[in-house]
Amino acid sequence: QKSHSVIEKNELPSSGNKHDFFSLAPYRWPNPEIANGLPYIGHDGVVNPEIYRISDKKYFDQMVDNVNLLSVAYYMTHNESYALKAGDLIRTWFLNDDTRMNPNLNYGEVNRGIDKINPAGMAGRNITGILEAVNLIKPSASWTKGDQQQIEAWFNKYLDWLLYSAAGKKEAEKINNHRTYYNLQVSSIALFLNKTDIAKKIIKETSDFLIPKTIMPDGRQPQELKRTKSLYYSVFNLIGLFRLAIVAENIGTNLWDYEANDNVGLKKALDYLIPYIKNEKVWNYPQIVPLQKKVLIELLVLASSHYKDKTYIDLCNMLLLK
After folding, report:
1. How many whole angstroms separate alpha carbon 169 and alpha carbon 151?
2. Please, which residues bridge with residue 41 across strands?
C-alpha cells in the first residue's frame, strides 16, 4: 500500500504550507441564510461530508491503523518486512523532508469563516498509537537510531505545541472529552520522551480535577450527556480515561481504581453504562445515530484487561459473536 502524506491534499490551510495538517470541523455546515455560507454553523453530531474532500485526516488515521497493525505483526512474528513497512509509513508522514507533517495542529478541525484560534487537538487524538508502534519496532534493524532520534525530535516539538501554543492551551481548558484526549496525548508523549515529571503532573491533574469534574456520583458524565450522540460520547470519553489509566500504570499510579469524593471513579462510570449496553435499560438522552459495535468492544476490552469482571468479559464476547 502507498505511503500517504500531508502534501497530497488539494486544498491548503490559510498558512499556505502543504506540510501543515489541515482538516475541517466535522459538525460545522454552511449557513443557509448567508449567500457564501460563512461563517459555518454547528449541527452537533451530523457530519458534513465536505470534510472528506481534504485528505489529511483520512490518510492520517489510515496511517496510524496500518502502523499499529504492522508493528504488532512484527512483535509477534519478528518478520522484518512488517517493521520495514511500518517504518516506511512513519518516515513518510513524520520524518522525510519532502513529505513530513509539521509538528502542530494549528489547522485541525477548522471552522470555515471564523478567524480565531481553534482548539484542534482532537484531530490528533490517535497519534499516541505511533508511540506504541515505535516501541514495538525499535528492536528491528529496519528502525535505526537516526529514525528514533528524529521521531523523538518531532514529538518534542509537538509536545511543546500541545503545552504552549494558544490552540493547545484552549484544549487544556476544556472539561469534557477534549480535555481527556488532550491529557492522553500530553502524558503519553511525555512518557515516550522520558519527561516523567510532565506525565506525572498530567495524571495527577486527571485524578484530582478531571475525573471528579466529569463523572457524577452515579456514574453519569454530564458534559457528554449534553451531546446529540450522548451515549457515544459517554463511551468515547471513558475509553480515553481508560487509556489514561494505562499511561498512569507506567508511573506507578492506579487510575483504574482511584475514587474521588462520593466514590466517583472510572468503574462507576462504566457500571452506569453497562445496563444500557446490555439493553436492560432504555437510554433517555439524545443518540441520533446507532452506536457502532466496535466502540463498545473497545471499551469492554480495555475494561476487561484490568477489572477481570466476568460481566464485562461475557458482554464483550457476546458483542464479538454478534
Report:
1. 23
2. 29
Report the alpha-carbon distance of residue 297 to residue 213 in Å, rounded.
Answer: 26
**Its pTM surpasses 0.85:** yes
Among 242, 182, 185, which Cα is nearest to 215's?
A: 242
Under-50 pLDDT residues of the chain? none
Classify the phi-psi angles of 45: left when phi > 0, otherwise alpha if psi is within -120 to 50, otherwise beta: left
Q: At what angle do helices 177-192 and 230-249 cross, to 10 degrees?
A: 20
Nearest to 28 by CA among 13, 45, 14, 10: 45
- Degrees (nearest 5) of the Cα angle 299, 305, 311? 70
Predicted local confidence at residue 292, as pLDDT: 93
Q: Which cell numbers hold the place of 302?
A: 480495555
> Cβ of 320: how many Cβ atoms within 10 Å?
11
pLDDT digits (tens, 9 = 90+) for 42-91: 999 999 999 999 999 999 999 999 999 999 999 999 999 999 999 999 99
Q: Which residue has the cell 470534510?
A: 51
The torsion angle over the Cα atoms of residues 123, 125, 127 and 131, rounded to 10 degrees, is: 170
Are 238 and 266 in contact by the 8 Å Cβ rule? The answer is yes
> Are the C-beta atoms of residues 268 and 255 closer than 8 Å to each other?
no
Grid cell locating 264? 466517583
pLDDT of residue 261: 85
- Would you report the helix, strand and coil content of the chain in percent, each value rounded to 5? 60, 0, 40
Residue 204 sits at φ, ψ, to 5 deg, of: -65, -40
Say what the pLDDT of residue 215 is: 97
Q: How much is the pLDDT for 74? A: 98
